[in-house]
Amino acid sequence: MNKTLRKLYPLAPLAAGLCTLFTAMPAAAIDFQTADNKWTFSVDGNINVHYIFSSCESSDSAKAVAGGLACTGSATGSSVSNVGNGLLPAALTFGVATQQEGFDIAAHFGLYPGIATNDGGSPNNQQGTSNGSSNTALGTTGLDVRQVYMTFGNKDMGTFLLGRNFGLFGFDAIINDMTLPGVGVAGSMSGISPANTSLGSIGLGYIYVDTLAQMDYTTPDFAGFKGTIGIFDPINAAGNTDAAQPKKAPGIHGKLSYDYAMNSDTKFYASAAFINQKQNYISATTGNPYGYNGFGFDLFGKVDWRALEAFAYYYHGSGLGTTGLFVLSADANGDKRSSDGYLLQVTYKVVEKLKLGVNYGVSRLDYASSADQVANPTLVESNSKITGGAYYSLTKNLMLLGEVSDVRAKSHADDSNRSLNVNVGAYLAF
User: Fold this and answer.
1) Is residue 197 within 8 Å of residue 228, measured between CB atoms?
2) Is the Cα dihedral 24, 210, 321, 160 positive or negative?
3) Which end of the chain is more exposed for a tag (fewer CB within 10 A), N or C?
4) What is the pLDDT of residue 145?
5) What is the CATH class of 3-429?
6) Residues 40-51, buried b or exposed e (16+ Cβ, 10 A)?
7) 143: pLDDT confidence band, cut at 50, 70 and 90?
8) Distance from C-alpha of 16 to C-alpha of 350, rounded to nearest angstrom
9) Of 300, 312, 239, the residue nearest 274 (C-alpha)
10) What is the pLDDT of residues 266-310, one digit of tens each?
11) Rounded CA separation 406/391 (Å)
């Protein structure tokens, strides 16, 4: 990527994050300019494919854990095989950038196809057929449009971003998750209707950042410090069967980060982010309106020292839920559930092309009240996992990798399920 494009087009977060993890891989494949050198265009992307084997809790021993992420078997067996994408879908992204009257202006389009057969509409939320599966003959895959945004600003005034892009809360956790080019926890890949993405460590150490319509502002760099504040399109709680009402105000996200290089061998990065949004519904039972405020904050710190990288991440939420934003965030009365979790990770480059890593994560969810406990006795108390991975750069663009993940889901009734995911595959960045 040339210097002009790096300056004008700073926000390709997934590519940038992967380049942080695997520095041999380029951030963009193709850059070209118009004849008058006023516009710079870029194209980049990835394809990743994995064989995923899941050894699930057997149907004889499986317990009810509502919101648990350990897979469970059926009467036909407890082993599941799948060939599909991992935590990332495939990607084809386009960027365009220019300078006009002292402003750096850019736009970005991110198209994310998968390879799983799923004819249910959304590539990540299949509806299924009469037999419960969307993974059927004569099917096709889906296209996920995650990013459509523009930016403008300069080094003195900062940068404005408007459009659909990744949020702020939880972003540093997922972008530094070593399973990003891999699979981590299989998620729907252990079921009859695989989506185009696995879980990685989502719901097992952090809440998914999600892609949201937004308008935000990032300050210039002040001695390594940057701040971002923005308004975001408010989304409804997943799974709530009450009548959702129009939101009275946008969601608000904010983030403060600090980046410091002590020398060429040692670097430090830290961040803190928050999210705040109101939910509004009319109860299907009583007909009465109710609402609750979802709030969360997170803390992230990472150290790079020569071939070693290590980070720690923590989050806490009230009315925010677990696994995804506003998933299991409140009970039927609109009383908020609190949640928290953490992810710890260490990776080490054994030789120039081989990196080994391990991470451990836990996500916890509490009852909103004693009434919630009575109504939902099988509610998940915690999802936890440990993943070990090996990542080998066969060439500067092609990586071969393998991972093993041990997953446990525990309910508040002290019942638990356990599963094991194993995956091998390849990740091609261009």
Assistant:
1) no
2) positive
3) C
4) 87
5) mainly beta
6) bebebbbbbebe
7) confident
8) 23
9) 300
10) 999 999 999 999 999 999 888 899 999 999 999 999 999 999 999
11) 18
